[in-house]
Design brief:
The N and C termini lie far apart (62 Å). The longest helix has 21 residues. Helix content is 34%, strand content 16%. Helix 4 links the parallel strand 3 and strand 4. Strands 7-8-10-9-12-13-14-15 form an eight-stranded mixed beta sheet, sandwiched between helices. By secondary structure, it is α/β, with parallel strands linked by helices. The protein contains 15 helices and 15 strands.
Length: 481
């Protein structure tokens, strides 16, 4: 690198000059962090100019000696053409270890300046002090604590992020399940949120369930409703995932609400059992009940569409004190005492005839306003047939006969919505939906106590949230006023 002197008004060795050179080392540390290395950086200074720099590179190079100081010393020796670095100073963001301290002494450095102390491996005063070993034939001046807080902060942020990443991946994959590669979810349009995972709910038995949790309770402003902010619990259907709610989430969080949007097992970023038989109505319902309990959700507005309604409409009766509102979009309660809608039966037949149907193409046809990237995002969780077991299973899980799993609980739920529901409700209907359109929704409205006239979205089809720019703010105002 080119030699660069500090500003002219700084004198050699004073505090200002030391801080200047330490900031050059900090720049190297941040570059190391960007490469996934422990963020330690170093520079070598000769006659007031930086002649070499180094940053930790042990992971990338598979080299246990590739500490920032060693890298910088090697580069400086090449610049000067001598392994002896007489007259040079080395600035490093973290107290050097025994290996690096020995190399510095061997190089005959004039001075070593470090930032943060290292109480575990520091060999310049924390664990031991090689630089004060009188029996060595060379002594090097040492000064610590220069920009110590800033240097320590870079390390703290790095290790905090790494611990969070380790927690996210601390969910071993079961042998009978698949996990969509994370690369499939990179740079999805309109989906910037950090993932959250849970695998220790009793019903999961180690399967990893993903959920979004935006604008958590502790950072929310007070809400006018019930003295606490709303929590919007957004449940998706088949063949989609939490990506369905990406346009609604910012509206709800901007109004001070918390948004929790899980991916059902088999969908999105959640684990995907290999066998279709792993899925059942009662099991998915139980997982959702346990998730609500684990997250201790309160003041909830239940937001449902498609299977989100089939399952979600059965949840509030188990803990009515947690729920304050219902936003229901193109779905149904399947109680086994009325025929399933013809549109749904046609959908189920299509899924049986074409189990490998193109999810992106489905969205492209039904939602021409979406970009190609948005349509492709819906396919991201399902790279091959093995990851699509839930897509094949769910159409046949919709309760149809009185003995089917889910019928009894759905009937109890219908009675709850008719007679016990005390919260606010709002129905939004996508009128172009051939599967669960306006006639189905009008019938459902009769079973929801005090449900006002629905909002009709003429342009919308089955996947109503894709048109939420037309109604999301009205919805937010309806439940927060």
């Amino acid at each position: 690198m080119s030699a660069e002197p500090p500003p002219n008004d700084q004198t050699h060795g004073d505090a200002g000059q030391d801080a200047y050179f330490m900031r050059q080392a900090l720049a190297q540390a941040r570059e190391a962090a960007a490469q996934g290395e422990v963020p330690v950086g170093a520079v070598v200074v000769y006659q007031g100019c930086v002649i070499a720099s180094g940053r930790n590179a042990g992971i990338a190079t598979h080299d246990p000696t590739a500490h920032a100081e060693i890298v910088a010393l090697r580069a400086a020796a090449q610049v000067l053409g001598n392994y002896r670095l007489d007259g040079c100073e080395l600035f490093v963001t973290l107290e050097p270890c025994a290996m690096c301290s020995g190399a510095m002494l061997h190089a005959r450095l004039k001075r070593v300046v470090f930032g943060a102390a290292d109480p575990k491996t520091g060999a310049a005063g924390s664990v031991l002090n090689l630089f004060k070993e009188a029996r060595l034939n060379h002594q090097t001046e040492v000064q610590g604590g220069v920009l110590a807080a800033e240097c320590a902060g870079v390390l703290a942020v790095f290790f905090r992020q790494r611990r969070a990443e380790q927690r996210r991946h601390a969910h071993p994959l079961r042998d009978d399940a698949l996990r969509t590669p994370e690369a499939r979810f990179q740079n999805l349009p309109g989906y910037p949120w950090a993932p959250n995972y849970v695998s220790d709910l009793p019903s999961l038995k180690g399967l990893r369930l993903h959920y979004l949790d935006e604008n958590p309770k502790q950072v929310q402003p007070p809400a006018p409703n019930h003295g606490e902010p709303l929590t919007w619990l957004c449940l998706h259907g088949n063949p989609v995932w939490s990506y369905l709610y990406r346009k609604m989430i910012p509206v709800f969080t901007e109004a001070g609400g918390r948004v929790v949007a899980p991916d059902l097992i088999g969908f999105g970023k959640s684990d995907k059992p290999k066998k279709e038989s792993a899925h059942s109505f009662s099991w998915h319902r139980q997982v959702l009940l346990e998730l609500v309990e684990r997250l201790d959700l309160s003041n909830v507005v239940l937001v449902v569409q498609d299977w989100g309604g089939l399952l979600g409409l059965t949840l509030p009766m188990d803990a009515p004190q947690r729920y304050r509102g219902l936003l229901v979009m193109n779905t149904l309660l399947a109680t086994g005492d009325t025929p399933l809608p013809p549109g749904f039966l046609a959908w189920r037949q299509m899924c049986a005839d074409k189990p490998a149907f193109d999810v992106a193409r489905l969205f492209e046809r039904a939602n021409p306003q979406l970009s190609a990237g948005e349509c492709a995002a819906y396919s991201a969780p399902f790279p091959d047939a093995g990851h699509r077991a839930a897509l094949r299973a769910f159409p046949n899980l919709v309760p149809e006969r009185p003995e089917d799993d889910g019928v009894e609980v759905s009937r109890v739920a219908r009675m709850f919505w008719q007679s016990r529901w005390a919260g606010r409700s709002l129905m939004v209907i996508g009128q172009q939906d051939p599967v669960l359109g306006e006639p189905v929704m009008r019938n459902l409205q009769h079973f929801i106590r005090h449900c006002p006239d629905p909002l009709l979205v003429h342009q919308a089809g089955h996947f109503v949230p894709e048109f939420s720019e037309m109604f999301a703010r009205l919805v937010s105002e309806h439940f927060t006023r």
